[in-house]
Amino acid sequence: MKKRTRTILLIIIGVLVCLFFLGSRNFEKDKETLLLLKSKAGNGEIKYVLDELEETESLSNPLINIAYQKWKTKMYERFITKEEAIENISGNKVIDDISNIYRDYWRTELLKDASDIRTDSLLYHKLADYLLSHSLTKLSKDSLQQTIKNDVELKRIIEKEGFSAKFMYRDGLQDLILWDRALSETYEVYLPKDTITTTVKFIENYVLNGYDDYATFGSSQVGGWAEKESATLYCNMNEYDLASERFKISYLKHESLHFTDLNDYPNLSSADLEYRAKLIELMFCSEATIYDRVAQFLNGANSENRSYAHAYANYSVINNLSQIIFKSEYVSNYNQWQQLSVEEINNAALILYNRSESILQNDKSLSEVI
């Protein structure tokens, strides 16, 4: 081997070694920091996230820091400088305008100092004005302003334009999901009490995907939901590998339990519905996904407001599991959870599920079990 060639190879090896050590430095810690911030943003805690971004100029791991800086820039452009140019993708002006009204509402409400001062009055005022000024409704101004909050007229207009809509109230915010293409499949789903046949509508193309997608640039999205009236599950097709445990358990079993619970326990709160569905996940997850699910529950946990169903359920799951497994109140150290076997978590989740089931069987009219 020529001397020059050997020198080049040594330089390349040296660079690779340096990159390896730089890439491994604080990798897990910084990765966890970024995931936590995105999780908080997905829960609507934008003020907290922006404060943390302001305080943390950069992360020590160069690889994670690249992703951090890109996300930080986008968050600033969307929520601070408002320099972001939103690209609508529907190809329909009415749908684009409605989407932009919701985006403006989300930005305003997410930036409020406290979630308890959020209001939807400005949203519905703007929607009513838009529908009237563009002659999209035959309702009078008085009639529309009195009924706009039930979303019926807006849904009719959206469907007339060839799109589908799902209106929700989540984490103190009015939420909207819009899409134009979906396909249906049927699945047999095994649950503790029964095996049920579930129809899943896979949404192929979103034009607006809810406030958490907006707040995180797609890092957090609605995976799906159950509709009791149509006996149908809706699934965010782009979020899942359909052969994966994440789809088969964290989506299919999770959402199917919602469907059965909505029928069996019609008064059960959203937080309790989520609590039981998250326990189902931990009952069936294998080593492939269970520790990731625990990490996501830890990152997304918050016990301050029961109306924030996912965050409150996450906290309740971790707190109640901690009491069974560690004989302690809420254990937040992820390293302690990683030391557990899959079976320990599976079994503890089963105990909690059976405990809630026993309570509900004694009184099916209950609204809360946690």
Reconstruct the topology from this structure.
Layout lengths: L2 H22 L2 H16 L3 H10 L6 H18 L13 H18 L10 H13 L7 H7 L4 H9 L3 E7 L2 E18 L4 E15 H7 L7 E4 L4 E5 L8 H20 L5 H15 L5 H10 L9 H17 L8 H5 L3 H21 L8
Parallel strand pairs: 3-5
Antiparallel strand pairs: 1-2, 2-3, 4-5
Helix pairs in contact: 2-3, 2-4, 2-9, 5-6, 10-11, 11-13, 11-15, 12-13, 13-15
Molecular structure report:
The protein is of the alpha+beta class and 370 residues long. Among the domains are: 3-79, no CATH class; 265-370, no CATH class. The protein is 56% helix and 13% strand. It contains 15 helices and five strands. It has a five-stranded mixed β-sheet. The radius of gyration is 23 Å and the shape is globular.
In short:
By secondary structure, the protein is of the alpha+beta class. It has 15 helices and five strands.
Structural class: alpha+beta
What is the gyration radius calculated from CA atoms? 23 Å
Helices and strands, in order, run as: HHHHHHHHEEEHEEHHHHHH
Spatial order of the strands forming the largest sheet: 1-2-3-5-4
Number of helices: 15
User: Which regions have little confidence, pLDDT < 50, spanning 5+ residues?
Assistant: none
In whole angstroms, the N-to-C terminal distance is 71 Å
> What fraction strand?
5-15%
Q: Identify the quaternary structure here.
A: single chain
Q: What global shape is seen? A: globular
Residues in helix, %? 55-70%
Task: Characterize the main sheet.
Answer: 5 strands, mixed
How many strand units? 5
